[in-house]
Design a protein that fits this description.
The protein is about 15% helix and about 40% strand. By secondary structure, it is α+β, with helices and mostly antiparallel strands.
Length: about 475
């Protein structure tokens, strides 16, 4: 038997029942009072149209010539208030009334009310809300309120028992229990979620996921469902992520994230093998934003990022998350693989924005007469880029594909693609390309670095049979 937390924090004792299952009674009795019901009100204006055009014209006539007020204002539309009500859950994290919940619980709310298990109700202020992570921080005025202790979601283990407390279908302080089914479940750029089999339904959103020590390890946020209700899988935001966001919301009311101005993609296994990467890790850079942090640091499209501040990048979603969690202005170190060499490159992180990229027409879309091309033993024909084309397409490439045999097109190459590199060799001209490719072993995978529109990426050509 173990006792958790001290002082005024919600605390509980978990023991094993005769059948070996955890006895949750004491834990629920201690943690329950810190879980709150959240009620929201959104006020809108709706307009009831006249039943027919003749009535609308009559009302307009009476208003213009006799000053008779129209039932709903000029134009025949009757203003009427529409009240939309919402409900969710949350939990107190401090004795003076700070509450964590989901962003979608309080989005667009004009009024937010919080009710405790002792039926006390408070008007709540939204300190800040972050839709990317679906986290919101609320504040009510109070002292010596019950609150929950925050644990470490980094320490969770698959198979451990957890419970959820919330208000599904407006049923206050409802308890469900289960186990952690998976951790770091990828569902988006910014959130590796905790997956459980704990029953979570509409109204549970924003409530705590609690371990057997009485600590919050997650915020219940999503379910996988084909019916709109619980189907055995639910997801929670890791509390470590929530704390990082809530601290920024508390300090400034918003979340500031870093960016370095790149677009990335996964590296196909055959490309990684052909380029002789040290191990299966990293992401390829498809585009570098002009003037952005990466461009200023000398990073190029076609580079492969292996690590961020020494932390290996194993999955594509890891890099955006690490960059996003970095404060703008901070200096970071990217480990980059370029043409067979590994190097560390310092980058000063920018603040995230919403840059829009102007798409340029590809050579295949321009509809211009193609210059004379030279066929290649790889089943493609290539031609030189003119200086005008290079300027229009904003490329440093020298040649592009004018025709492809079907078997070569199946690799993913397209007519109009600009060939920048073959394996680790930069292409300087059509003649150079011919010389490089003529000496290749067609029994091995060949990797092309190509530019298509604004994107630069790798395409592999499988060995000839």
């Amino acid at each position: 038997m173990s006792v958790v937390s001290v002082g005024s924090q919600a605390q509980g004792t978990v023991s094993s029942s005769a059948g070996g299952l955890p006895d949750l009674v004491m834990l629920v009795e201690k943690a329950g009072p810190a879980v709150v019901n959240i009620r929201t009100i959104e006020k809108r204006q709706q307009y009831a149209q006249h039943s027919n055009e003749a009535e609308r014209q009559l009302q307009e006539y009476l208003f213009r010539f006799f000053g008779v007020p129209q039932p709903g204002g000029r134009g025949g539309a009757q203003a009427a208030p529409e009240v939309r009500r919402g409900m969710g859950s949350g939990f107190l994290t401090t004795p003076d009334g700070y509450i964590l919940t989901n962003s979608h619980v309080v989005d667009n709310a004009d009024e937010v009310y919080v009710r405790l298990t002792d039926n006390r109700e408070f008007s709540a202020r939204v300190i800040g809300s972050d839709s990317r992570t679906d986290i919101a921080l609320l504040k009510i005025d109070g002292q010596n309120l019950p609150y929950l202790r925050l644990g470490k979601s980094a320490d969770i283990r698959v198979g451990e028992w957890v419970l959820a407390i919330g208000s599904p279908f407006a049923l206050d302080n409802t308890v469900t229990a289960g186990i952690i089914s998976a951790k770091a479940r990828e569902t988006g750029d910014y959130l590796p979620l905790i997956q459980t089999d704990v029953a979570v339904n509409p109204g549970n959103s924003g409530g705590p996921l609690i371990n057997m020590r009485g600590e919050v390890i997650g915020i219940n946020s999503q379910i996988y469902s084909r019916s709109g209700g619980y189907m055995g899988i639910s997801f929670a935001i890791p509390i470590d992520e929530a704390v990082l966001v809530s601290e920024q919301l508390k300090a400034t009311g918003r979340v500031s994230r870093g960016k370095i101005g790149i677009q990335i993609a996964e590296i196909p296994a055959d490309v990684a093998t052909a380029l002789k990467l040290p191990e299966k890790q990293g992401v390829q850079i498809n585009m570098v934003e002009p003037g952005g942090a990466a461009a200023r640091a000398g990073i190029q499209a076609g580079d492969i990022i292996l690590a961020f501040n020494g932390q290996a990048i194993k999955k594509i979603n890891e890099l955006p998350r690490l960059i996003g969690e970095t404060s703008p202005g901070a200096n970071v170190r990217l480990t980059v693989w370029r043409k067979g060499d590994m190097r560390d490159m310092p980058v000063k992180v920018d603040a995230i924005g919403d840059p829009s990229m102007d798409r340029k027409p590809s050579l295949d879309q321009q509809g211009k007469k193609q210059p004379e091309s030279i066929e290649n033993s790889l089943g493609m024909a290539v031609a030189e880029l003119s200086e005008n084309q290079k300027s229009q397409l904003k490329t440093n490439g020298r040649i592009y594909i004018t025709a492809l045999e079907q078997k070569t097109a199946m690799s993913g190459l397209r007519r109009g693609d600009i060939i920048l590199r073959v394996n680790d060799t930069d292409v300087k001209s059509v003649t150079h390309f011919q010389g490089v490719t003529s000496g290749l072993d067609r029994k091995k995978t060949i990797v092309f670095l190509v530019q298509r529109n604004d994107l630069i990426f790798f395409v592999s050509l499988k060995p000839a049979m």
